[in-house]
Amino acid sequence: MALKPGVVSGEDYSELVNSCKQGGYALAAVNCVGTDSVNAAMEAAAQNNSDIIIQFSNGGAQFYAGKGMKDAFQAKVLGAVSAAHHVHLLAEHYGICVVLHTDHANRKLVPWVDALIDHSEAHFKAHGRPLYTSHMLDLSEDDIDDNLSECARVLRRMAPLDMSLEIELGITGGEEDGVGHEVEEGADNSKLYTQPEDVLKAYDLLSPIGHFSVAASFGNVHGVYKPGNVQLRPEILRNSQALVAETHGTKGNPLNLVFHGGSGSEKAKIAEALTYGVFKMNIDTDTQFAFAEAVGAYVNANARAFKYQIDPEDGSPYKKQYDPRKWLRAGEEGFIARLEEAFADLGSAGKSIAG
Ligand SMILES: [Zn+2]
Questions:
Q1: Residue 103 catalytic?
Q2: pLDDT per residue over 96-105, tens digit each?
Q3: Residue 323 CA to ligand 1 centre (angstroms)
Q4: Active-site residue, from 12, 36, 51, 103
């Protein structure tokens, strides 16, 4: 069934997730920090007829509100709210489905998520839908029972608002905006691999409450690292699906799985993960670099325009080159080109279910 273009939530979101799992493709979840990256993400999705997930880390949300805002917590909340309003207003005009999501929130950031749910509550009362499609809680530093009981509390708040929760089991190596874990070379990296028993525990507790997804660790690491440090083992995802399916007598892939730390991953491992019910892959490091690389190339090619308003030797004006719309657009184009590659890797190109 085709969905109305724009921000999706509730039943429509479930349908989009199921469409991904049944079609063997995943959506790119793109970390954005401002209108440039948000618009570029939607433009890339529209160009490739792909649905997309736009997400904000706590730092990204703060940047959206402005680094100069004095109260950092307030900026993290209001930036995320402002970004969501921007996307709600524009997404339908790009003609694709957009999922609005926030990235890693550890214990310290739970109040941030609760404050955003307050905003979704008000939005739901006024418009019949939440501001955000979903939020993530990353309590993987806690023991499994503390992690899951807090996830259950938050999901109980979100479910009546048609919102979904992403949880983290096991740890993704590296860090995402200050939340995360260093990967030590040669250290015991067993925590980087989620136990299927923990995934089953999460399913038992959360599936009666509401819609949720699991960022399971299978050796994935945030950022781009020297290859060979950590072994990607997507079969952990397969084993988790099998254990839940067996225990509950369900067919196919009952879990909605999320792939963190996708940047720099081998394409074959990405393709393998997709067959195990991964519907979302986060992308940040690679799109950041693509934006920066394109801006860098522009600046190098127009170096004098970044030094002089008017050339001191021949008097030529440089306004047309230093206009921020020129170099920011160059960055957006780099970002868009990298996303096109991601849509191809994830098999989402041409598969938008917006109609
Ligand atoms: Zn992550």
A1: yes
A2: 999 999 999 9
A3: 34
A4: 103
